[in-house]
Amino acid sequence: MAETQYTKDHEWVAVDGDIATVGITPYAADKLGDVVYVELPAVGATLAAGSIVGEIESTKSVGELFAPVDGEVVEANQAVVDDPSLVNRDPAGEGWMVKVRFTELPTLLSADEYAALTAE
Prior knowledge:
By secondary structure, the protein is α+β, with helices and mostly antiparallel strands. The protein has a single domain, classed as CATH 2.40.50.100. The protein is built from four helices and nine strands; from the N terminus they run βββαβββββααβα. The strands form two sheets. Strands 1-2-3-9-8-5 form a six-stranded antiparallel sheet. A three-stranded antiparallel sheet has the order 4-6-7. It is globular and about 35 Å long. It starts with a strand and ends with a helix. The model has no long low-confidence stretch (mean pLDDT about 95).
């Protein structure tokens, strides 16, 4: 089972071997409100950690999806592009955004550290 870690940008990262599955946290999905549009990078795109790789638009605001790792997009979740409300219904499951083959995993937040961040 992949261990889930978090970024300060409210994304979760589940690592399985050299593949990181990335999505936004339930906290972020809740703050965004009803998601109406998702734009994701193309398969094969090269990502740099910290760069903007996508967009999430809700009835309240437009948010950006940041790359938590350096690597290559091996899969983009077409289901959330077709049905953006998946992000609200299941942000930590079916509402994942991209899968990235990474070379090095940066230091990310543990569940406890992320909980402390969002409690502030």
